[in-house]
Amino acid sequence: MGRRMEMPPECAHCGKADPQYGGYCRACVGHATWMHAIQHAWDPSQVRIDGYMYDIRAELPPIPSVPEPTGGKGFGGRRFIIRFHDGRVVETRNLWMIGIIPDEYREALPDNAVFENVPPGLEDRASAKRRRRPRTKKGG
Ligand SMILES: [Zn+2]
User: pLDDT per position in the chain (140 positions), as tens?
Assistant: First the structure.
């Protein structure tokens, strides 16, 4: 008989014992999140603008008799138009910010789109003032 599946004894990334977050320790679970994003970088709903990652989620069908919940949609249901580098233009009212892409994953997750519009009042949150670090380029 083989051994039965059980939680790994150590973090899959750093080796710390007794990981609590699906095989990763607390410090490394973010790494797992970004690795997952890299594996799904082709996903047409994955948006990367100015080093930030967003997720276009399904539009919730409007129910005429019920006012739209403001908490259930990204950015309160504001309308964004996103122009992807591949030519797609997507309009969404359910855009969620995942977060800033850490530098170490930036190369694997380059920008793939720009905002065609940013709703008034969301300029700061949506396309944040980015602390640009000088990019060092290796020759070539
Ligand atoms: Zn770890």
Answer: 445 556 678 998 899 998 888 888 988 888 888 999 999 999 999 999 999 999 999 877 766 676 655 557 888 888 999 999 999 999 999 999 989 999 999 999 999 999 998 877 777 665 544 444 445 555 44
C-alpha 99 – ligand 1 centre gap (Å): 20
The residue segments making up the domain with residue 14 are 8-39
Examine the domain organization and report whether 46 and 113 are in the same domain: yes
Number of domains in the chain: 2
Ion ligand 1, residues whose Cβ is below 5 A away? 11, 13-14, 16, 25, 28
Report how far ligand 1's centroid is from the alpha carbon of 133 (Å).
Answer: 27
> Is residue 96 domain-shared with residue 52, that is, in the same domain?
yes
CA of 11 to the centre of ligand 1 (A): 5
C-alpha to C-alpha distance for 16 and 54, rounded to whole angstroms: 30
Query: Can you read off the two tokens belonging to residue 68?
Result: 């739209």
Of the candidates 84, 94, 89, the one whose C-alpha atom is nearest the C-alpha of residue 42 is 84
